[in-house]
Amino acid sequence: MRTTLLLICFVFGFARTSIAQDALNTAPRADSTVVVSDSSGTNSPTKSLVIKDINHSPKKAGMLSAILPGLGQMYNHKYWKAPIVWGALGGVGYLAYLNTAYYSFFHGALIIANYPYHTSADLFNYAEKRPYKSIATNLSSNDISKMSESTFQIQNDYYQRNRDLSYFFVGILYLCNILDATVDGHLYNYNIDDDLSFHIQPSILSAGMSSSSAMGMSFRLTF
After folding, report:
1. pTM score > 0.70 for this model?
2. CB 123 within 8 A of CB 147
3. pLDDT of residue 158
4. What is the dihedral of CA 61, 62, 68, 73, to 10 degrees?
């Protein structure tokens, strides 16, 4: 327990120092404005692109999320995503823990049931010593002692499959957390210009080489 607390303190300390150092290094250059000239060459107003942090690192965001899920999202200033990451991983992780406990109980009972000379007393004593009430609350130790080997086999296989699936989804969510932080890191300075617009208006369409025309709709995207 002490080792776990020290490890957590070290991770938080490392992340805090890393983010603080990054902020100090980029503070004078943050919120820079880059002027982009109009490509048409006319005297139309120029467009400006605001860069939040030119030293923001997508790689660092991914690494922080790999060290501690949700930390990369906080580095990207997407603070609202961190509780979602923690909730998803916590929920699936808890299911993995429960399925592991269920599997452990029924696997142990199956080993006893497979023993050629076992008795119902052996299963009874096993159930009394194991915290089975959190697994099969409707069954007493006496009920468990009367269960057949095939029943233990079915329960063993069922919870083994659920355990494996739970850990699989924990891994998938962990990787998605890293991917999300990395993608957000790449899009951190992505700017949607204020001049971006989409227009739909009626238009007269020419029918090829002929002089005939027809009414239609035109779509214009300005950026």
Report:
1. no
2. yes
3. 95
4. 50
